[in-house]
Write a structure and sequence with these properties.
With 230 residues, the chain is mostly helical. Helix content is 59%, strand content 10%. Helix 1 packs antiparallel against helix 2, helix 2 packs antiparallel against helix 4 and helix 5 crosses helix 6. The longest helix is centred in the N-terminal third of the chain and has 32 residues.
Length: 230
């Protein structure tokens, strides 16, 4: 009789743990961030159709799938199901990375009426010139390396805290920069086809050449200064 009571209490405790874990996951659910500009604000560089599909469909899907994966992970943690926790790592990396990357990407862009395309200045510009020789050389190097990404992925300008220097990096799929390399993300450019194909077709270099016209260097500079601890 006592054994049955203990088993019942243990089962109730596991149920409470699962409920608590799921409730916690729901409370901390991620949401799609609003854009700081209209869908048509980046035209003619990026069309309103691309922006609306990219933001409201693709990014939203990453958010939805991330929330679902986190809820499943919380349930697996509550039940001590280590195999399920391990099995969910891929979904967390892919969808979590997609959410992180796109949230940065939207702020890295701005219409020209809001400063998009205006060159960087101050310490950031000094770092670019010191590292790459000139802004034009940086853009050429960044574009070439990012154009060479096989399949889908991202090009990044990141800050290496250990070296106190900026670096270009490319990553496949939706791998998040900081988690994958330790670099703090400053500027990210999406080269998944959904980011440009409706407008630039399969000519990725044309997209990468044009996007500098709407890069929000003020946002990149804010991230640079924050990464340096200034």
């Amino acid at each position: 009789m006592l054994s049955s009571v203990r088993q019942g209490l243990a089962a109730s405790l596991r149920t409470c743990q699962r409920a608590t874990a799921v409730t916690s996951a729901v409370r901390s659910a991620h949401s799609l961030p609003d854009l700081p500009y209209d869908y048509n604000a980046l035209e003619p560089i990026i069309s309103a159709e691309i922006m609306e599909l990219h933001h409201s469909k693709h990014h939203q899907t990453y958010v939805n799938n991330l929330n679902a994966a986190e809820e499943q992970y919380a349930e697996a943690t509550g039940t001590g199901d280590l195999s399920a926790q391990i099995g969910l790592q891929g979904a967390l990396r892919f969808n979590g990375g997609g959410h992180i990357n796109h949230s940065i990407f939207w702020t890295n862009l701005a219409p020209q009426s809001m400063g998009g395309g205006e060159p960087p200045s101050g310490e950031l510009m000094d770092a670019i010139v010191s590292t790459f020789g000139s802004l034009e050389q940086f853009q050429a190097t960044f574009s070439a390396k990012t154009a060479a990404v096989q399949g889908s992925g991202w090009g990044w300008l990141g800050y290496n805290k250990t070296k106190g220097a900026i670096e270009i990096a490319t990553l496949p799929n939706q791998d998040p920069l900081e988690a994958a390399t330790g670099l703090v993300p400053l500027l990210g450019v999406d080269v998944w086809e959904h980011a440009y194909y409706l407008q630039y077709k399969n000519v990725r270099p044309d997209y990468l050449k044009a996007i500098w016209e709407v890069v929000n260097w003020s946002n990149v500079n804010d991230r640079f200064m924050a990464a340096k601890g200034n």
